[in-house]
Write a structure and sequence with these properties.
Layout: E1 3-6, H1 16-29, H2 38-42, H3 47-58, H4 64-82, H5 89-98, E2 103-106, H6 111-121, E3 129-131, H7 144-153, E4 160-164, H8 167-175, E5 180-183, H9 192-198, E6 201-203, H10 206-211
Parallel strand pairs: 1-2, 1-4, 2-3, 4-5, 5-6
């Protein structure tokens, strides 16, 4: 291994509880009751893609830009003031940097929110690149985001370790030739067995990986 790509939400940042409720909140503002499956669909999308999906499916009388702005407003306080890193995440990232391993974040989170959280938490400077889907690039249901991030790190997919908490993302990265480690998030417990089957390995917390000195694989 030569470099690391980290997902943000649910992997480094303890934030999935926030996102799981945003689709329902948007729908309720327009008098629409969530049929129960909206969060499952939108979690695999970027914020603009999710906005377009909700508008199209539920005939919301609003533009994608307005929904995106509303989502950002709902989440802004949490990202700028509240959401914590998951236990052990900062120690793991800083140990990677100390060992000279190039690190990046690849996330479908709205860029303003992502940068606000990383700057507040004081770890933005740990990453050589922070990459989000822009200019029509698909989210993590396609491999473009991973390939673009690896290119910025100057490492091939097989040399670039990816950390993810979501099953769909792990599947995409693995199919694209990246070794993947799955990190448990409470919101992802229903997919945990699937994540175990897809990933090269899984861990229930960051401290588990620190204790076993996962970084040995970067010296091989």
């Amino acid at each position: 291994m030569k470099s690391i790509i980290f997902d943000l939400d649910g992997t480094l940042l303890d934030s999935m509880c926030l996102w799981d409720g945003l689709a329902q909140r948007i729908l309720l503002e327009y008098g629409v009751e969530d049929p129960g499956d909206a969060p499952d669909y939108v979690k695999a999308m970027t914020v603009p893609q999710a906005a377009e999906y909700l508008i199209r499916r539920f005939s919301l009388p609003v533009s994608p830009e307005q929904v995106t702005e509303r989502v950002e407003a709902m989440a802004a306080r949490a990202y700028t003031e509240e959401l914590p890193l998951k236990p052990g995440a900062e120690a793991f990232v800083r140990e990677a940097v100390r060992r000279g391993i190039p690190c990046a974040v690849a996330s479908v989170t709205y860029p303003k929110l992502l940068h606000a959280a990383l700057n507040r938490l004081g770890i933005a400077d740990c990453f050589s690149a922070i990459v989000t889907p822009e200019n029509g690039m698909p989210g993590k249901h396609e491999p473009d985001l991973y390939h673009n991030t690896a290119a910025l790190l100057h490492t091939a997919p097989a040399q670039t370790l990816v950390f993810e908490d979501a099953l769909y993302s792990a599947k995409t990265a693995k199919a694209a030739g990246f070794p993947v480690i799955g990190i448990l998030d409470p919101a992802g417990k229903p997919e945990w067995d699937g994540l175990k089957a897809v990933c090269d390995r899984t861990a229930e917390c960051w401290q588990e990986l620190l204790d076993e000195d996962l970084f040995q694989i970067f010296a091989e």
